[in-house]
Amino acid sequence: MNLKPARMAAIGLGLAFALSACGAQTDPGQFGETEMEEGESGQALRDCSDVLKSAGADLSYCDLPGADLPNAGLRKATLTGANLTEADLTGADLFSADLTITDLSGANLTKASLASAVMTGADLAGANLTGANLTGANLTGADLRKANVSEATWVDGRVCASGSEGLCR
Length: 169
Hints:
Order of helices and strands: EHE
Distance between the termini: 44 Å
Strand content: under 5%
């Protein structure tokens, strides 16, 4: 498991406990003073580059910045707290996915299906949602600053005008 060094320092058993909560198999004696990356919620991020991208997958708190996932089949997947900054999710099927507090800033979600997705508190700042389907999605508390929503199907079913940014016009 490769966790990037960052803000949360832990020693010995504390680090082993934090890693086991992310699903890592660890030997508490193998750690000295070590750091690991922490997401906005305080949960440690995990490297999920080896996780199969499939319907219903649990990718919670995965660290996948810049991931190349065009047309990924992630229906009903759980991506709570994941880091998908600058990820390419063009045409991805995220129908009914849980994207609560997920960082999708700068991500390409062109023509992605986000219908019925839960995106409560998600960071979509600067994301490209051109032509995306957001019908029935929950965007409560989501950050859509500078997000391109041109020609996207909005949560209420209307199609956003070309040039719409942040809000459907």
